[in-house]
């Protein structure tokens, strides 16, 4: 119920439900509430949920990362640095972020800040072309998904290009046979950001393809500019 109410935008009702239910809220409930706060960018409730989660599961770095994301969306870079300092002092590190796609029985893995792919140069060249195409269709980069302070939007857009699911989708398109109608399949170990989600919808239009993305939360089926999750994930 907390998840359903929160994702639908009824954060006040979800909060009331938590406050009045006969059970003591556990980490899963507070986590669902925090996730809803991230979707709807409600920092006030998010800070309440995060405080509870820090006590219930202090070693879970994902809660700190969500709060860094929310603070970055609000341009509260001082709070972003504060969370980073807390994580450093507690010895917490975010887990590795990766996406992979399979081409001809071989898995191609793309790491955030890790070993570059052997065809990295060609992939970025194709991705720049692809982004130019989808911009003509109405795509606008979501700067709220840039979680570090940058001097201008151009620098932020470059950071967004390095997201692993974009690289995996692009590589899948590069290796896709022109006559093939098979979807591009990508698996990511963490939740996909809203910018990559929007980009995938536009890519499905630009290239007339279907994209199946399994992220850390759910499956996404992109087709003709729409996603099976109806933009709630």
Automatic annotation (TrEMBL):
<dbReference type="Pfam" id="PF20431">
    <property type="entry name" value="E_motif"/>
</dbReference>
<dbReference type="InterPro" id="IPR011990">
    <property type="entry name" value="TPR-like_helical_dom_sf"/>
</dbReference>
<dbReference type="InterPro" id="IPR046960">
    <property type="entry name" value="PPR_At4g14850-like_plant"/>
</dbReference>
<comment type="similarity">
    <text>Belongs to the PPR family. PCMP-H subfamily.</text>
</comment>
<dbReference type="Pfam" id="PF14432">
    <property type="entry name" value="DYW_deaminase"/>
</dbReference>
<dbReference type="GO" id="GO:0008270">
    <property type="term" value="F:zinc ion binding"/>
</dbReference>
<feature type="domain" description="DYW">
    <location>
        <begin position="138"/>
        <end position="233"/>
    </location>
</feature>
<dbReference type="InterPro" id="IPR046848">
    <property type="entry name" value="E_motif"/>
</dbReference>
<dbReference type="InterPro" id="IPR032867">
    <property type="entry name" value="DYW_dom"/>
</dbReference>
<protein>
    <recommendedName>
        <fullName>DYW domain-containing protein</fullName>
    </recommendedName>
</protein>
<dbReference type="GO" id="GO:0003723">
    <property type="term" value="F:RNA binding"/>
</dbReference>
<dbReference type="GO" id="GO:0009451">
    <property type="term" value="P:RNA modification"/>
</dbReference>
